[in-house]
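Here's my example:
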Amino acid sequence: MSDERQAAAWGRIGGLTAWSRNDAEIMTGAAHRGFRAKFEREVDPEGILPAPERAARAARARRAYMLGLAARSASVRRKKTPAVEKPGVFATEVHRHARPSS
């Protein structure tokens, strides 16, 4: 096994061990709090909104962000998938996982 592959294997072992011994809040809590805070600052930069309103707006902004990511991801996947032509069906109507018949 190459040094690079061995290092990757030990990294995976270490990561899985850490996740097996710790609660998810310990492992990702700070990152999640920071991610949510980013949207709260975005929707209320002066911090003047009541906390429930700021949280509701931040949740909508976060949802819009995630939907945008999903749309861009789907667009990239569509571009990577070759169009499959079937008689009587437009290429845009064919499911992206369709396989050409042999």
Summary: The chain has one domain: 3-93. Residues 3-93 form one domain. The mean pLDDT is 86.
